[in-house]
Amino acid sequence: MIYTELVVFILGVSVLFYVVFGGADFGAGILEIFTGQKGVSTISKAIAPVWEANHIWLIIAVVILFNGFPKVYSTVSIVLHIPVFLALIGIIFRGAAFTFRHYDAVKDSSQQIYSVVFRYSSLFSTIFLGIILGALVSGTLPEQDYSLSNLSFYQYFVAPWFNPFCFSIGLFVSVLSAYIASIFLLGEVETDYGYGLIAKFIKRLFWASVVTGSLIFVSSYYQGLDFHLRFLDHSISIGCAIIASAIVPFIWIFINRREIWSLRILGGVQVVLIVLGWLANQWPNLLYYHGGGILSIHDASAEQTVMKVLLIALIVGILLIFPALYFLFRVFKVEK
């Protein structure tokens, strides 16, 4: 079983990195909805060298699920194929629009179209990634085998994710992404006006995260789900939420002092605490089914021989990925 737990640990780290770095990437596009053309140059400069590399964490997570936890992968790819498809469409449109906007040799009115597509596909993608997450933790997934189910198309492929709880998580993920992007972007702006503008967005996005986070618990309660009960019954989840909230005054202090790296570290810690609170609440289960059924990591795990080979492959990959990412950020993001 040790192989399974080690693979799950790497899966958790991959999700964590994707939320922090990929979330900041998506969040920059969401933030541009509000900054408009004023933020285009700063955002393009900030994410252009690294935006594609951030998706490596999502790829690792998908590979782990496909090989190590096929029951989870099949549920996501079959029952949740609609939100998965929509999220992927958003990611494709977002990447294509950003690339054309940034590298197109001809600068004309098409740049505005690319910008609109980039901004709203960033929001669209994060909402549906959050919806997928919500469906996995909500307890609305059908437990029957899809080939034998007597449920209707709507009951099986729409109802598990098309509900207030999942959409509230989608909104929360979008706000959280914009929040961490704003914190990271403070170090990229070159004018006092730009710094003040982003600082205002950070404060507004914090309160927006409070509102959308509250919607998660309210919708869980009114839908008759047990997510809020599981959260309130878990000391680690509550502790992570308290510590993340206690960091907020220090965020304001460092904004006023313009201590960029302290801000980035604390902002990253806040997001890490939110993800850890969710992972602790989820452990040791991967899926929650309608009617109270659960699928734990050990029930969903592939054979230990498979997990051993997968773990070795992941370790080799990590030894290659981290030095490459360090070199990438060293070249493009570290100030000379």
SSE series: HHHHHHHHHHHHHEEHH
Structural class: mainly alpha
**Count of β-strands:** 2
Q: Runs with pLDDT <50, length 5+? A: none
What is the approximate shape?
globular
Radius of gyration: 20 Å
Q: What is the number of helical segments per DSSP (H or I, 4+ residues)? A: 15
Q: Please summarize the sheet with the most strands.
A: 2 strands, antiparallel
Domains counted in the coordinates: how many? Answer: 1
Strand content: under 5%
- What portion of residues is helical? over 70%
- What is the residue-averaged pLDDT? 86
Please give the alpha-carbon distance between the first and last residues: 47 Å
Strand order of the largest sheet: 1-2
Assembly state (oligomeric):
single chain
Describe the structure.
- Helix content is 77%, strand content 2%.
- The protein has 336 residues and is mostly helical.
- It has one domain (2-332).
- Strand 1 and strand 2 form a beta hairpin.
- Helix 1 (2-35) packs antiparallel against helix 6 (110-138), helix 6 packs across helix 8 and helix 8 (164-185) runs antiparallel to helix 9 (192-222).
- The termini are far apart.
